[in-house]
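dude i think i finally got it to work??
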Amino acid sequence: MSYLKKKISALFLSKYQVIENYFPITKKNLTNYFKEKVFFKDAKNTKGLYINFIITSKTEIRIFTPLLNYILENNPEIKVSLFFAKQNLAFDSKLSKKITESKNVNYDSSPFNLIKFKKSVNVVCLDHTFYIKAHKLGIEIIDFLNRENLKTVCIQHGGNQDDYIKGQLSSKSKYQIVFGKLIFNRLLEYGFGSGKVYLTGNPLHDNLFSSNSNLKLDENRKVISLVTCMHTEYDDRPDPKACYIEYLKNVYTSINFDDYQLVVKMHPYDNVLDNIYDVVSQDLKLADYDVRIIKSNDSNNSVYDIISASDIVISRASTIIEEALMINKRVIAFDLFEDGNSQYYDFLLKYRNYEKVIGKAGNLRDIIAKSSSEAEDNLGDIDELVLNTTYKLDGKSTERIIRALKDISKIN
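look at this
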């Protein structure tokens, strides 16, 4: 930044400095800023609905994708700006093409445009002070917008495990959009006013039962899927990588590949270059047709395609646990440690299709055999689980979220 630009920033733009690391101020931004100050003084009062989607992680990419598709297809009058706080993030090619062709949805990088319209609604997913290190970007941006007295909204991105609920309760945003009754009630009990919490359902579940999957599996064997996180949950241990390797060895050696094919769905933050799933599989000399590894960016085979095709789902700490139970799958929460992250899902132990295993491969092998032989229905519990987790499986959750954003924009 030039000396003159620094001086101008110090005089007029000091309030932007906290977020300039994420949205750098360019010369063009400065020129437009002063033009609007002089010639368009009432620009902040422009009518219409303006939504700023603030993208700090792959999580927001995942949650915002169905919302943007819905806006592009059903609400072309809504004006949307997309602010990427990290430059290595992007929507998939299909949605990116639609955005490029749209007149009302555009990419933006100017911090001035974040506060351009008084009635704009600013939306994030990760602004929880409970995770102050991991959510630093979202927290700082939402703090800035709150100081400007703008509308800030946090959309739920996780499930109902205890640590996540503590996170949602610590959101910095003024308004909360949540998916299920359980977390909705917790927010009200915590002190959020009823007019500041919206219950919508999960937009990712709108097409839960209607995907056109290209997933091709071995028709002669049952399917076990492994859907968990291999990137953070053991990072507090002395040797995280050794834990991840031990975890996978336990899973792989617990499966009888004469009877089962294992499908692994990688998490968006799993390391693709040093693919630990592949490394352990090769070390154990397992064949590709026994352990099929699907990258997180494989849009042809979504996680929902995989769990729908599975007889048993293995996880440790993932919202997929609740989602698999909702579609009546048998779920095994496998963890190496009693105090591991699987403990946060113990509230699901009341459901008949859910079992928890701690420790050695032998224990997991026994539970897999038991789960295979005991085809017990969980159907009596599903209605409660759906209400608590995703409110309604009626295909209208995305619509309800957009309606909530419209309502929030009208609040004075």
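The first helix runs from residue 3 to 12.
im so relieved honestly
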